[in-house]
Specification:
The protein is mainly α. The chain folds into 2 domains: 46 residues; 31 residues.
Length: 77
């Protein structure tokens, strides 16, 4: 009888631990959903702004590469 009681209390403890972990996961999921909504709302409100930003990034990368190449050519001579 004592062995069964120990197994039962051990099982109850494990179930309790799992409930606590599940509650923590639920809280994290609520936070994650909120964050994703905020990101989505920001992207929707930007509309064409991201295209300008992407173009500026591409242009600066191209100019940086060109400047690096020019520096190699100048220092090689």
């Amino acid at each position: 009888m004592k062995v069964r009681l120990r197994q039962s209390s051990s099982l109850n403890r494990e179930v309790g631990e799992l409930r606590v972990r599940l509650a923590a996961v639920d809280d994290e999921m609520r936070i994650l959903r909120s964050d994703v909504r905020e990101i989505r709302d920001a992207l929707v409100s930007m509309k064409g702004g991201w295209k300008i930003l992407a173009s500026l990034v591409a242009l600066s990368a191209a100019l940086g590469g060109l400047a690096g190449r020019l520096a190699d050519v100048v220092t090689a001579n």
